[in-house]
Specification:
The termini are close together. The protein has 14 helices and 24 strands. Helix 10 links the parallel strand 18 and strand 19. By secondary structure, it is an alpha/beta fold. It has a 4-stranded mixed β-sheet. A 4-stranded mixed β-sheet has the order 2-15-17-16. Helix 5 packs parallel to helix 6. The protein is elongated and about 65 Å long. The relative contact order is 0.16. The protein binds uridine-diphosphate-N-acetylglucosamine.
Length: about 425
Amino acid sequence: MDSIIVRGGAELRGQIPIAGAKNACLALMPATLLSEEPLTLTNAPRLSDICTMTQLLESLGAEVSSMQGGKVIAMSTHDLGSTRADYEIVRKMRASNLVLGPLLARAHEAVVSLPGGCAIGARPMDIHIEALEALGAQIELKDGYLHAVARGGLKGGRVKLRFASVGATENVLMAATLAKGTTLIENAAREPEIVDLARCLRAMGAQIEGEGSSTIEVQGVDRLHGATHQVVTDRIELGTYMLAPAFTGGEVECLGGKLELIGAFVEKLDMAGIDVTETEAGLKVKLRGDRPRAVDVITEPFPGFPTDLQAQMMAMLCTAQGTSRLEEKIFENRFMHAPELVRMGARIEVHGGHATVTGVDKLKGAQVMATDLRASVSLILAGLAAEGETVVNRVYHLDRGYEHVEDKLGAVGARIERVSA
Ligand code: UD1
């Protein structure tokens, strides 16, 4: 298994291109199941999670081809060959559950494995199930699989989500496009990836209003047609690289970055003493003094501070002046990077969903282990600031969500390399 070796202390300077959003692409790809006609995505990221989704869609009868080195994904699902999403694929990636809504809408039936637990928490599917039941689906759990049917097809209805779950909003939004009548999704998630999905579905002929707000209205149509859609910029990759100069000094311009994707995060950067300026090509970032300042962070659904940037922010706060408090409100077990950062000399105390970080002058390189996707990149960022060598093991998590991290950071001056075991 590959490891990443980082030698700290190098100042970063230059431009980092930001890819299309993994989480948007993973929701957009299953939309192919809604139509007999081709759906093409441009600006797709080149990640192992995208390969997993490709495999899943192919197992359901989609033809998927990737062009321009993976940046363009052309899909076509003329016939559904199967309506069963197998455990072997779903267990690798929770986002596989996003085929449930589209399969129910098109075939009126689906058998989808439950994803099982993952490192950051239990992550049940109850909100997805309740939402699809509100559209007339009957869903039963048998042998670890959800067996869903909608005899005569889904019917529009009022869906009030108990929590603004991103995945549940995406599933029910896709399902509602082909349901009979009008669907009102209340307490919908407002993430930019939802807005992107709604735009793509609209390009396919769906009638949707209100995406980006907490109430989405969908007028069901008989069929959807083909479309070409450009995947929105990855706000989490953007936020990750925007933090890099706070570890090392220097100045980095993140190409394709937009403030509207990342407002709450930028507010915290400003409070921590990090300047962000909008340029024609993206966002330029620079540390004001020689050390960032402590800030308190609470993760929340969009437009709040994203949970997917909490680990990276914690790593940055490890070298900030003062004491920061972090509260994780989305996932129950998302501080597993903390003990690894402590191995690098950080001062962190974790109590349940709360962490206190007292900044130290210098982190020290160490062998560390990545337990999930965002945790792995937080350890790489910490390595950029640390004295000596940091070896991040088990980087397969990283490859799920960051394309060529060593090339992107290497190109702006980081001393970083990948070694294969
Ligand atoms: C998506 C993102 C993930 C991000 C998360 C929160 C994708 C592929 N992944 O995940 O990177 O961290 O949003 O921004 O887009 N929950 C339930 N029951 C449900 C569904 C969710 O209790 O039926 C809980 C989860 O366990 C979790 C919280 O709600 O604690 C948030 O989950 P959700 O918004 O659904 O996240 P995902 O769509 O899984």
